[in-house]
């Protein structure tokens, strides 16, 4: 199959491309920069969608980059890097004479309101709790194909991901050095839910959607089954055990607020208990259903 991946040069995109290539699929990346195996966003806007069986969007400025201050300019970049790239692909799919079977948008479980007690499935309402949930709501709305424009039965699948744990990117590598120096510990109270997924499981789930030409479900929560009960403290303890290092130094909430700012601090200090209900109903099986199995693999 031919697969087009917006933002495919990043952390998730590189793993997904590797998996797709190993399964005999041909990947083209949409990027801000031209290169081998790539087209640019400008190409898609001007020339239209290249022939493909599936389109995926993974483009987005890293929200939790601690080196970027939370200025109005950076906030707009976080928003537009998701909304405008998604809009470009949605419009190109709508106008394409041969649209793909599936259109897969990877967003986040930040759609659901942060809570230590509520448990969410794909059916739960959300999208109006804070900056992140409103961003996910708007981002997913932009991906909708208007029935009058879309000449085909392209299926939109919104994949709401938890924190993606992998060796080569995302949150985990930057957490390892404080733990290795025995400076690790829970963030804030540590009681906040910690929804997560192993990168390999996320890419296998995306691959399943691509190969099945969509999914029987329009929304999938991409979180491990243990995410309904995992907290930041559980994660800290599991990481501490896996590394054989103590994790007793909590990161104070005030420090997180000072470093990340009002809109971003809740992403670390609060969380959502999320179940992958429809993901499991779709027949997907997780290779890494709990933190111990995931960390044992990632820290091998
Ligand atoms: N990683 C996670 O834990 C996680 C969890 C939930 C949801 N997600 C979502 O999944 C998507 C992919 O995540 P990722 O970790 O793979 O992201 P990533 O590696 O940080 O970035 C993916 C790609 O986005 C493009 N990009 C970055 N800044 C951009 C900008 N200002 N404008 C346009 N494109 C830009 C880059 O491609 P080019 O440089 O080639 O243009 C980059 O390779 C993101 O939308 C993210 O919000 C990630």
UniProtKB/TrEMBL annotation:
SUPFAM superfamilies: NAD(P)-binding Rossmann-fold domains (SSF51735). InterPro entries: DUF1731 (IPR013549), Epimerase_deHydtase (IPR001509), NAD(P)-bd_dom_sf (IPR036291), SDR39U1 (IPR010099). Residues 3-123 form the NAD-dependent epimerase/dehydratase domain. Gene3D superfamilies: NAD(P)-binding Rossmann-like Domain. Residues 251-298 form the DUF1731 domain. Pfam families: DUF1731 (PF08338), Epimerase (PF01370). This is Epimerase family protein SDR39U1. It comes from Xenopus tropicalis. The lineage of its organism: Eukaryota, Metazoa, Chordata, Craniata, Vertebrata.
